[in-house]
Amino acid sequence: MVVTPHVAQKARHSAIDGRTTQHPGYALSQRCRRKIEEPFGWAKTVGGMAQTVHRGLDRVRAQFTMTMAACNLARLPKLLAA
User: Fold this and answer.
1) Confidence band (pLDDT; 50, 70, 90) for 68?
2) What is the model's pLDDT at position 63?
3) Buried b (16+ CB within 10 A) or exposed e, 54-69
4) What residue spans define the domains of the chain?
5) Dihedral sign, CA of 22, 25, 27, 33?
6) Cα-based distances in Å from 24 to 12, 17, 19, 43, 65
7) Is 39 exposed, middle or buried (0-12, 13-18, 19+ CB in 10 A)?
8) DSSP characters over 16-33
9) Which end of the chain is more exposed for a tag (fewer CB within 10 A), N or C?
């Protein structure tokens, strides 16, 4: 696959010009980026991962695992409907 790195184009004063955004790999890259970044955004806003209350790598890892499992469960009805 020819995929352009995940760099978003801003509305004004963007470092990404038309030469980059015209390629089909850029559109593919943006779709992949959305799939990757949405669960992390959900975890920070809804799942409480923006500022964890736990100390220690093992406890934070467990919280992250549970948060991402909850994210998957929240997405499940939408995925089953499709």
Assistant:
1) very high
2) 94
3) eeeeeeeeebbeebbe
4) 18-81
5) negative
6) 22, 14, 11, 30, 34
7) middle
8) --HHHHTSHHHHHHHHHH
9) C
Q: What are phi and psi of 44, to 5 degrees?
A: -75, -40
Q: Residue 4: what pLDDT?
A: 57
79: its two tokens? 């995925």
Banded pLDDT at 28 (limits 50, 70, 90): confident
Cβ neighbours of 70 (radius 10 Å): 14
Distance of CA 7 to the CA centre of its chain: 13
In the chain, % of residues over pLDDT 90: 45
* Closest C-alpha to 4, from 28, 35, 39, 31: 28
Give the DSSP per-residue string, 33-69: HHHHHHHHHHHHHTSS-SS-S--SHHHHHHHHHHHHH
